[in-house]
Amino acid sequence: MDEQNRNMLLAAVLSFVVIFGWFLIFPPEPPTDLPPIDASQPGVDAPLAPAPGAPAPVLPGIPPSPELRRAEAIEQTARVPVETPRLTGSISLKGGRIDDLALNDYRVALDPESENVVLFSPSGAEQPYLATYGWLPTIQNPGIATPDGNTMWAVESGSALTPDSPVTLVWENGAGLVFRREISVDDNYMFTVRQSVENTGATDISLAPFGYIAQIGVPEVIGFFILHEGAIGAADGVSFNYTYEGGWITDSMADFEPDSTEAAQVEKVTAAETGWLGFTGKYWASALIPEKGQQFVQVYKYLEANGRQEFRTEMRMPSIAIPAGSTQEVETRLFAGAKEMELLREYERDLGIERFDYMVDWGWFWFLTRPIFDVLHWLNIQIGNMGWSIIILTLIFKTLLFPLAWKSYVSMSKMKKLQPEMEKIKEKVGDDRMKLQQEMMALYKKEKVNPAAGCLPILLQIPIFFSLYKVLFVTIEVRQAPFILWIEDLSVRDPTSVLNLFGILPFAPPDPTSFLSIFSIGVFPIVMGITMWMQQKLNPAPTDPTQAMIFSWIPWVFMFMLGQFASGLVIYWCANNILTFVQQYAIMRSQGVDVDFFGNVKRSLKRRPKKDA
Prior knowledge:
Blueprint: H1 3-25, H2 70-75, E1 79-83, E2 87-92, E3 97-107, E4 116-120, E5 129-137, E6 154-157, E7 167-172, E8 177-185, E9 190-199, E10 205-216, E11 230-235, E12 238-243, E13 248-250, E14 265-271, E15 275-280, E16 284-290, E17 296-305, E18 308-316, E19 320-322, E20 327-338, H3 341-351, H4 366-383, H5 386-400, H6 402-417, H7 419-429, H8 433-447, H9 456-474, H10 523-536, H11 545-562, H12 567-590, H13 597-605
Antiparallel strand pairs: 1-2, 2-3, 3-4, 5-10, 6-7, 7-8, 8-9, 9-20, 10-18, 10-19, 11-12, 11-15, 12-13, 14-17, 15-16, 16-20, 17-18
């Protein structure tokens, strides 16, 4: 086989190996065994543990009652409606929790009649997910009654929470303290919570404000290792991630200080200047955010109560002195919504929330994924179609890599012209492989030809491919984004199937979770396989039958393998193949090489004669 075909075969096989090797080298991390948990730990319906030294209160935990449907659980308590352009829900007066939120702009399916995506659900529902706030008594005032998850708040002002009208809740402890919780919200997903304590008694006191987000039960997750799902946060420029399986991941493990005084799995991080923490999924997230410059302790906690698992991210702030006759307050924020990149960056910039856009999982290759997303998002804004934006992005990549492609294909053209001399060398040296290698290298050096240059354009496509795959997989801007005709969601595989002749036959293709779905490839994966096959036909097939067979199968293996990927990624690969074909054909013709594309196609379709026995 000549060097040109060998290089192309090597590059194609290497691409194949890298794609599969990635999944073998970086498999999902195995679940970490959780330490024993004290079942007496408080659940979401109980207050947090008191400050060290304070007497422990009676903690009711999570009531072992049957789970209710979400609508029924909401009806169990009095509520204040939440009505914003992008959120619909309510605040429970029991506990003063923000525990009922749905996203107006996002639906669970493409069907416009499908339900809106639900983010928060109340205690008692199947998968409770909520945020709440309060005050902890300190060691100086251990007996003070403070509001907890069972406290019934009253509405002091506001009939509904809207961007133009905040709501204030009030509760008196009967011992001279009046607790207020003023909640406001912007036009998007950011709540502002102002907690205050009015001390009408004759004794100075001190209390420590807190807030927490809780998820009861392990939520449904995608479980794909390239995506982080679970607790997330940042403290003074360092990011932290916690998976639901119990594994801790951080840039600096030394920053974690396990708290052995609490009978739960607890990790603490102190933020001196800036920070936030919460939970993240693929497209949706929640986060607690103190004011910039406010020191606080982040607590990532796993506990069990009444046989149910609970995951918490807690924001604990230093105690505040509240002299008799005075009022003290603390202001924090709560993000609850979609991880829209422009919005996250706006909050980061305007509110000083450091690393807030890292709520989107950019991965290890963030230096590629972030700029690729920025360009793709900008193109989508200008064009108004994410599919065409992916194609234009492909053209940009090919333009940036054109100097290297030119050098590569010129080198390949020179090697093609050297074929007669290479054949003479083979006849001259016979079976002496070392002599053949020496003579070949001398010829390459004399003619200034780099035999490895043909691999470089394909090899450089590998990190771009993985980075674009990451962008299409994790960014909400691609979710349910249409292209043309049957492609209504670029973030999922091509919905057509060759098994039912692309919808002509009256039966549905195999379910995507079925093993048979690997054979259920759509139109664009087939186009991708054909365009990859066309690239091969720019060069004659290898003379060795085994190598020729391997070479001929590669496009169709890729076709079935990538047919399971997001259609946006397959469209990118199709566009890249077509542009590469045009580039290679034009450059090699400009170097005087006779590219016999149709001749190579005809020869490849002829039945090869059987070898003599």
